[in-house]
């Protein structure tokens, strides 16, 4: 791991530690291994260990911990599963990590209203397991089996967003502990509301910097009558992206439409022992009635054929579909397996779909002139794609080259009307990009942060720098 | 009009007036008729005239006006079409009304990306007229031909929300003038983003209390290949509502599903010279492929038959559909026509759909024991319904009775997990309800307001009371 510049760390007094111990007993840890594990996420970012880890079991406990921290001016860093990608869990200024992974209760399911309330530590897979006999499911799927609190905090999305939206569209309400320990409930269970400021959407995507999310109310969906998948390789990447654009423009309600480039397809073949063509490839999923999914697949198949699609393979059997999506889901690990011992630096721009082909082609041209290995996957129905730089973070020249290419790609995306992050969030890895993207609205974000957290104790150093 | 309690009004100095005149010339008016017209909306709320009306033509002009107001500590009240229903445009503390209805430019349309940027004064009908040859449309339809700035500011929705969402889901970005005159751009053109705090959603629904919206970037949709409508009367209201619930639970992607009760159907018949059954009635619209809309209509027809639907009439011809929806659109005016010279007090609760039948039936039971006339219409796919109290605001006993019934209905909706306003907003008519609904999150809304508007000059007295 490369060292990061030393930052001022709050001293954690014996008194503060004693107060937290009194609250949590054994569920407060200062063991080095526990602190280290809580100071790193799934990306290349260096470990930034907190001074202590508090394993909270309820909203009230989170509130009590936050109150102790507020009194002692200690930073608070929420932790779900540690699967963030922009250093969201790093304790840049030390302090107390609040691990909510023990808050695993599904508090309420309403099959009639298609909604559910969960504690923040419930993961998306746990929720779907819980829902198994109800005929309902929660669609948002960022790949990792992340906690729903963490997914809310980073405004996560993933493969299903083109049809079902992101966490922004699917969180109905939240319970949040504010910087002074107050507990508030935002939103509600009505499907729409015009009642005051949209605090729910303010906390969704705030990455723990405005408060700690402890409970989440989510929309659910009926499992479709029919689900089918398809895979289609293309002669070139523009043909694949043009198929995506035309599909979206035609209003075909695809549930998933994912691009993997030829490098990623090679990685997937090796990792999952498959034999797909090593060419730019689209993976599709269709949800609807039996007649509906067939109609969707036929429409998309026709568009693919016009754009250089080589062989549109339609899979309706559950095993076929699962094999296909398992291969897609393992893309990140398949990429890392290309170089044993490496780590991944996943990029995350999102552009208006009319610019997607240009953005991808120019980015790959840049990459072709570099020595870095970087497979590409994309949630292309939303205009969002990722490169994964497969790197050794101990080699400064690789880090510098990845940074140079990433800077160029983000500038390219912003020039095309896009965003520096479609779904991974800002953390501390993208603050400069956010400042560039938001213009003078960045200062307003800082003012908002100060209003909610005047002492800058809630996940300090993330999203905005004060 | 009933008089409202006198409020402290900022004195508008000659100096402030002179500065605004210098900026706007003839486009600053202090004429009594102009001020009166800008102090009232479409509801029963009393006129609250501003001291002056500024007809702005650009974001920069709005900013310049706001700066003058900030310097002289004058309230600022934005005005679009004056079609709000909770007193949103009333100048409770005097000051300057900024009328953006002259900001009517469609700044940019991207047919490839399905988005558009408009000035705040463009109305939804004007936008759809502009889009006529593109094959695209903007679906959000609150009934009135409101401005898109105003629709954003109140988080409007209406008949299409069950399929296309509300303004919350369809505003991609905004240009906003803040209380100190700064101009910021929020959001962007990417279909999703995790880049920092969601300022866009914070301003959507803020009703002019955090800033003045001057430009709006919106999602557009392809006009569906096929559109069909249907109408079906039911033996009782529970059967109608159960049909709605089952339709939503089955995931049938209806574009519109509207309930009119027997009183409203009578009003519609008289107003539009029609001969529908005077029974609880559902109006449907289906969007999709030809096969898709037929499949949807058949599924809904089967559900209606199981729930006491009497005669499911399917209309595919454009003239038939237009006649049907014109009747629905005129429901408010049809209600008022039941009593010439009356005004409407439209209510607006929204509950989880499993509670919708109970909420409606209990509300109608209350109403049956009152002398007030109040037809019912509902965007029932979202759990949202409106009574329109047809009243004479000069009769205090009617106002008191409407208030008593409305208080009971809002309490009922809140007890069922609902909201005091599905789409009309808070204005100053619903602040007490919002405080009750939001609990201690209401105080947080106040803190947010103070952070954005420390002098309480932006549409003061609305949403939150400081």
Automatic annotation (TrEMBL), chains A, B:
InterPro entries: FAD-bd_oxidored_4_C (IPR004113), FAD-bd_PCMH (IPR016166), FAD-bd_PCMH-like_sf (IPR036318), FAD-bd_PCMH_sub2 (IPR016169), FAD-linked_Oxase-like_C (IPR016164), Oxid_FAD_bind_N (IPR006094), Vanillyl_alc_oxidase_C-sub2 (IPR016171)
Keywords per UniProt: FAD, Flavoprotein, Oxidoreductase, Transit peptide
All copies of domain FAD-binding PCMH-type, residue ranges: 46-223
Main enzyme class: oxidoreductase
Annotated signal peptide: none
Highest taxon, organism lineage: Bacteria
Pfam families: FAD-oxidase_C, FAD_binding_4
Cofactor(s) required, per the database record: FAD
PROSITE patterns linked to this entry: FAD_PCMH
EC number from the UniProt entry: 1.1.2.4
Family statement: Belongs to the FAD-binding oxidoreductase/transferase type 4 family.
Protein name in the entry: D-lactate dehydrogenase (cytochrome)
Lineage: Bacteria, Pseudomonadati, Pseudomonadota, Alphaproteobacteria, Rhodospirillales
